[in-house]
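Sanity check

After download, print the first record. It should look like this:
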Amino acid sequence: GTEAERGTINQIKSAAPESIDLCGQTSFVEIGTLARHAAVAIGNDTGPMHMIGIMNCPVVSLFSGVTSPEKSRPAGRYVETLQAQNIADITAGDVLQKTLQMLQSP
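Expected structure tokens:
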């Protein structure tokens, strides 16, 4: 994430204190390297998620009603999408359910 997402990052750190905050500290190359070793990546439709997808890291990509996941989802073998007209309406429960389904599939 970037400093613009600091509030959300702080919420995540509060809920998951064991998480590691790399906000503003990674290059695109480093994001790719991290993706190779990650269990899963969850994020909105951004450039880094596309890089992560092609590294074959399991991805759950979140879309608003403005963009078509069918046309612009990240490439990769293990990519799932969630969409709501207002991306803020996608709940943590929705993301968790989709993530668990994806990780439990062969």
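If your output differs, re-run the checksum step. Summary of this record's structure: The longest helix spans residues 92-104.
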